[in-house]
Amino acid sequence: MTSDLPEPDLYIGKHYKSFLSNNFDPKEYANSTINSTSESDGDITISLAKLSFGIDNLNKQLHDQVIAHFEDLISQASGIRDLEIVLKSVKEGVNSLTSSLERLKTKIHAPYTQIKNYTLQLERYQTASDLLRNIVRFFHLARLLEGQLSEINNEDEKAIEYVKAAPILGELEILLKEVDFEGIELVQAQIPEIQKSKDKITVETFQLLQKGIDCQNEADIILCIQIFKELHEIGESILKYVDDIYEKLLEQIKDVVDVNLLQKEVKDSGVIPMKGIRRLGTEPSTGASSVWTSTLWKRMEILMNEICESYPMTGLSYLEDDSILDTEFLQHYWKLLSQNFGRELKEATKGNTFMQQTLINGYPKLIRLFRDFFTKLEEHGHLKLDGEFQSQETLIMLHSILSFETGYLERSIIRLFDPINVAFPAGIHRTPPSKSDVTNIVRAISTELAAVRIDPHLLRSVAKNVVKALNLFGAKAENMAIVDSSAYQVTGPGPCTASQNTNFELINSLYALHQSAWKVLEEYPDNITEIVFDAVENTRKVMQNIVDPLFHHIRKEFESTILKIHREDFSRQLSINFMLTEAQCSTYMIELSNRMNYVQKELFSKISCGLNSKEWTKELGKRILYFWLLHASLVRPLTENGKKKLTRDMGQLEFSLNQLLIENGSSIEELGDEYNALRAFKQLLFLDKSHIAEDQYISNLPLLILIHHIIVSSSTSTQNINTVNTLQLPYKIYGWTEADYSKWLDEHNESEGIDLVKGCLRTNSELKSSNEEELFEEKLVRKLLKERAGIEV
């Protein structure tokens, strides 16, 4: 209904909107109306008439609204009456529920109060019962304690009786801490007597413990520790026990590194040292240094044995499962021992050159003493060491001598660098390392590694020094290597140049160092080899960087000589002059043989690199054979006499190359495929073309060389090389030289070379347009390409 009401503005003018304001005040409105009327000389009756009219108008509107919505108002009134009936019913239900709750509360309250009281009584009965039981237990333990202490008849039985009394005292102490006996006079009267007995046992047990420590009586120490454990004072007692051990060991440590006592012991030993330069203070003379050093290490060994025998766990072995011993007190012992051991050693080396040098240079001996000490403790089950002989305790102790390790490693790197600096002296006239220099370097490496082999951690550190030394050698060798033109002069005449001699000696030194270093490393575990691996192989890399340019120039020189094969005449027919000189090989081959002899005599003979020299010359030999076969297959025109001449060249090549290989520990038979290809080519020269595809012997020949030969065989004289019925070689088609062609083949793979050769064959369309038949050689090449390369042309 309310949604159908019109807006007030439809019935109320703008002059009556103020009556709708929430802040409307009648008095204020009346005053403002009177004031405005008086100011404008108006009549107040007019304002009253307006108000009366407004009231009548509102009444009329209200009457209209009631009439218009009469049925809705009646319906709302009826609904309100029904709601009152429902609310009355709900109120009656709530009242009924309240009455039920009150009745239920009355029924529960009494039993609850009764149960609460009974529970309180039971709790108090239990508390009283527990207290009475504890009181009975207290008096029982007090009587036991009194009886136990009264049985002590002499001093010898005292410790044993204290061991029996200690558990009773310990239980009494727990009872007094956990149970409140306040106000129980009988118990309170007994407490002072119990405390007196405990103090007496504690004091006398401490005295017995001190006596046991002083006399190294393990039985007394064990009894005392057991008593303190039962008295729940194990911490304080063991702490005192550990501190007493530490104090005694500290005095022994100070005595061992006391130079005055060391000097006295050397003097009392009666050993007369060699005469030497006397030094001031407590420094030994030069002749007496070895005696002093030997005595110092003997004293250090005795000290480590004393530390092992005085180890706290020796007196506490039966308590090894006690967690308190595995943590707080043993850590306390190791911390005290390591801190003071390191401090005393550092103090002894201050201002004393002998002590400093002995402890730094003899650091591996110090490590060995520590390892022996740890081994003994492990054998007795007091330590658990890992695969690298380390544990928390060993790390704490080794940390105390870390400064000496640093000094040792610094001197170790100096000892490794010294022979290298000797091998590469400074100055204008530098000489490469000799064999003795390399021997000294390898000996230094072997000595440094062997000296620290006992300790894996120190061994790794020294191995890293070896890496630095090998890298230094490689860098110096690389800087000394000569790379100007004089180092790569391979044609002669005369002996090799001074630059080449320098490089050869560097190559030999690098090889000797590489081989010797690996021989030394064979005795060490894989993790050490992994550290040094790159540095050792770097020496080989430097060697190879010197060798490769030399062999590159040698190879290029040989190749340029072989290229002269194309200047030879292989097209001559049989003549008298030819018959007279038929035993001679070609001029280029004589030149190639002479160059091989020169290279071996003046160059290769000065390289002593074992299997490396063998492999280098084998690779060179393979290249020579391949390059010669490639260009021999391109020789055109080639008559039958030309083939015989090639055969003689082939024999001379085989002989000269074999001599070169034999001088370097190999032979031409070891060249494998290249040598087999040479033998196959020799047979191919005189093989009928019709049998080429079926002959199994020529399967050793590379397909390109075989195709070259077939193309060459399509013409036998100069006159018909360029005829239509003659196949052209690939380099001729593209206008290349023989050298350009071989260079292109070096830069591309075999399949690309075969694709190039395919261009030498005429297509079917070309054959049809020229009305010519396919040459036999073309058919043969197509057959070979299909059978050996799987290519259809």
UniProtKB/TrEMBL annotation:
<dbReference type="GO" id="GO:0017119">
    <property type="term" value="C:Golgi transport complex"/>
</dbReference>
<protein>
    <recommendedName>
        <fullName>Conserved oligomeric Golgi complex subunit 5</fullName>
    </recommendedName>
</protein>
<dbReference type="Pfam" id="PF10392">
    <property type="entry name" value="COG5_N"/>
</dbReference>
<dbReference type="GO" id="GO:0000139">
    <property type="term" value="C:Golgi membrane"/>
</dbReference>
<dbReference type="GO" id="GO:0006891">
    <property type="term" value="P:intra-Golgi vesicle-mediated transport"/>
</dbReference>
<dbReference type="InterPro" id="IPR019465">
    <property type="entry name" value="Cog5"/>
</dbReference>
<keyword id="KW-0333">Golgi apparatus</keyword>
<dbReference type="Pfam" id="PF20649">
    <property type="entry name" value="COG5_C"/>
</dbReference>
<feature type="domain" description="Conserved oligomeric Golgi complex subunit 5 N-terminal">
    <location>
        <begin position="18"/>
        <end position="143"/>
    </location>
</feature>
<dbReference type="InterPro" id="IPR048485">
    <property type="entry name" value="COG5_helical"/>
</dbReference>
<dbReference type="InterPro" id="IPR049176">
    <property type="entry name" value="COG5_N"/>
</dbReference>
<feature type="domain" description="Conserved oligomeric Golgi complex subunit 5 helical">
    <location>
        <begin position="181"/>
        <end position="374"/>
    </location>
</feature>
<keyword id="KW-0472">Membrane</keyword>
